[in-house]
Design brief:
Elements (H helix, E strand, L loop, with lengths): L14 H20 L7 E2 L14 E5 L5 E3 L2 E3 L4 H8 L7 E6 L5 H18 L4 E4 L6
Parallel strand pairs: 1-6, 2-5, 5-6
Antiparallel strand pairs: 2-3, 3-4
Length: 137
């Protein structure tokens, strides 16, 4: 009787599978630490390239006297979250375009961002704020 030298083992070897699982675990642990979920969402388009956003849902302006305007209507600082929330209530992932005078302090820009973050927290949405710039000459 002739016997074969190589016998087939019917058992499954799972050592390579466990290596793959550990590599995936390390990958997801490293990438999750790089994400900062509490960051302010402020997109600054490059002023030299002249990029434009396809669509903005709400336009907020701040003039040199630190007066807020939503869709060219003057409003107070306290009204910002309410009015922005009303205008973006039907939109899931909206964009707020912020026009700010060059002399305006950063604190007033942050107030608009905070108002949008309050709307996001209260409505469970993901609206963004972009800062409008003038094209460089």
């Amino acid at each position: 009787m002739i016997q074969t030298r190589n016998k087939i083992d019917p058992n499954f070897n799972s050592s390579s599978m466990s290596d793959l699982v550990f590599l995936l675990l390390i990958f997801f642990m490293l990438t999750s630490t790089l994400i900062s979920p509490n960051a302010i969402k402020l997109l600054l388009p490059k002023s030299t390239s002249g990029q434009t956003m396809a669509k903005q849902n709400v336009t907020v302006s701040i003039d040199e006297n630190n007066q807020f305007f939503v869709e060219n209507n003057p409003i107070s600082e306290e009204e910002l979250p309410v009015i922005i929330g009303n205008l973006l209530s039907e939109v899931t992932d909206g964009t707020v375009k912020l026009h700010s005078d060059a002399s305006v302090a950063v604190q007033y820009v942050v107030k608009v961002i905070d108002a949008v973050n309050k709307v996001n927290a209260s409505q469970g949405k993901k609206h963004k704020v972009i800062l409008a710039t003038e094209a460089a000459k």
